[in-house]
Structure formats: C-alpha cells, structure tokens
Design brief:
The chain is α+β, with helices and mostly antiparallel strands. The chain has seven helices and four strands; from the N terminus they run H-H-H-H-H-H-E-E-H-E-E. The structure holds protoporphyrin IX containing FE. Protoporphyrin IX containing FE binds next to helix 1, helix 6 and helix 7.
C-alpha cells in the first residue's frame, strides 16, 4: 500500500481525535509511523492500524475502514485536484474510476495496486458497483464512496452491499443535498 494512504489516514485521525490518539494507535499497532507518499509499505500495516483503532474505539474493523474511507476522500482529492477538476458529481467520478482515475493514479504512484472497480448506471439512475481486490477492502471503498458524495454535496444511499471479501457489490443512489462543491 502506498505511503500516501497512510499519510491521509494520519491526517484524518489527527484532525478528528488529536495527535495523542494517533500516537496511541501507532503504539498499539507497533508501527513507527514514518512514511513517504511514494513509498510502498506492507498491506498488513494498514490492517494493524485498523485493528488498533477498532479496539481503541470499540468498533468492528469494517466500521473503522468505512470511517477511514469517508474521512480521507477529501484529503485524496486535495492531493490531486487535477484528477477531479472535470467532475461535479460523485456519479462521474465513480463511472471514470476504473477507466481513467485509478489508471492515472498508477502513473502518479509507480507500483500502486488499485482495485478493479466496475460501475454501471442502471436505467433508473441507480449505480451498480462491483469492487474486486485481493486486499479485500470493500468497506474502505464504501467509505470512500460516501466521502466522495459528501465532497460534492451529495448524499449516497447504499441500497445493498454484498461483501464476500475480495469482491463487493453495491447498489447506490446518489441524491443532491446541500453545500455542493462542484
Ligand atoms: C469514490 C472514489 C474512489 C474509490 C471508491 C476508491 C477506492 C479505492 C480502494 C478501495 C483502494 C484500496 C486498494 C484496494 O482495495 O485494493 C484504493 C486505492 C487507492 N486509490 Fe482509490 N478510490 C477512489 C478514488 C480515488 C481518487 C480520486 C484517487 C486519487 C486522486 C485515488 C487514489 C488511490 C490511491 C493512491 C490508492 C493506493 C494504491 C496503492 O497503495 O497501491 N482513489 N482506492
């Protein structure tokens, strides 16, 4: 997993819960917390942080993943405004994720391993999303989707989520709410 992910998680936890909480998580996870954006670190380190947070906040690890995804989308967007400048809705971000956005990410972060993410728009406007990755981070994807909605001032309703680990299928409805950015 690229260092940028860890750095965004650190930013999110520090902003929300303070530097001491972050240090506590690092200690509990047994990590030194030194990352560079382009460096590659073991996926297990993310799992160790998620598990430490799950214990500390008494939440299921999947819920921690969701919160992390939700809390880091805006940081990801701020890091790469050029990748989102043509977008005014999470709908087109999701539709372009597999074909444009993540392939661009792989150019920016050599050695990055992005998930496969097939998105189709149904006749009724609902989006059907099919995530696949050996990292099995479906709940993180869920959180990023909700975070993307919030970023564009939309609210995302998850109508169904079927998560079998390395694959996760979701059906979502995107609704306009207030405070749109795009
Ligand atoms: C709603 C939109 C997005 C979703 C649902 C999403 C989903 C994910 C997920 C779940 C991962 C974890 C890796 C895995 O599961 O195998 C990931 C990795 C990543 N994504 Fe996205 N992503 C989104 C948008 C973006 C955007 C806008 C950027 C950049 C501006 C981005 C950059 C990255 C990077 C850098 C990684 C790490 C790859 C690695 O460490 O090897 N993603 N994405």
């Amino acid at each position: 997993m690229k260092g940028v992910v860890f750095i965004l998680v650190e930013e999110f936890v520090t902003d929300q819960f303070g530097a001491e909480a972050w240090d506590g998580l690092l200690e509990a996870a047994g990590l030194d917390g030194v990352w560079t954006t382009l460096g590659t670190y073991p996926d297990e380190h993310l799992a160790m942080l998620v598990n430490a947070a799950a214990e500390r906040f008494e939440l299921p690890p999947e819920q921690v993943q969701r919160l992390v995804g939700q809390g880091t989308f805006s940081g990801l967007a701020a890091q790469h405004p050029e990748l989102l400048e043509d977008h005014t809705s999470s709908r087109t971000v999701l539709l372009d994720l597999n074909g444009i956005i993540h392939p661009e990410v792989m150019k920016l972060y050599p050695g990055a391993e992005v998930p496969w993410f097939d998105v189709t728009e149904q006749a009724d406007g609902l989006l059907h999303l099919h995530y696949r990755s050996r990292r099995a981070l479906g709940p993180l994807a869920e959180g990023l989707i909700v975070g993307a909605g919030a970023y564009f001032g939309e609210s995302i309703e998850l109508l169904s989520v079927v998560d079998t680990g390395e694959e996760c299928q979701m059906v979502i409805r995107i609704e306009q709410s207030t405070g749109a950015k795009g």
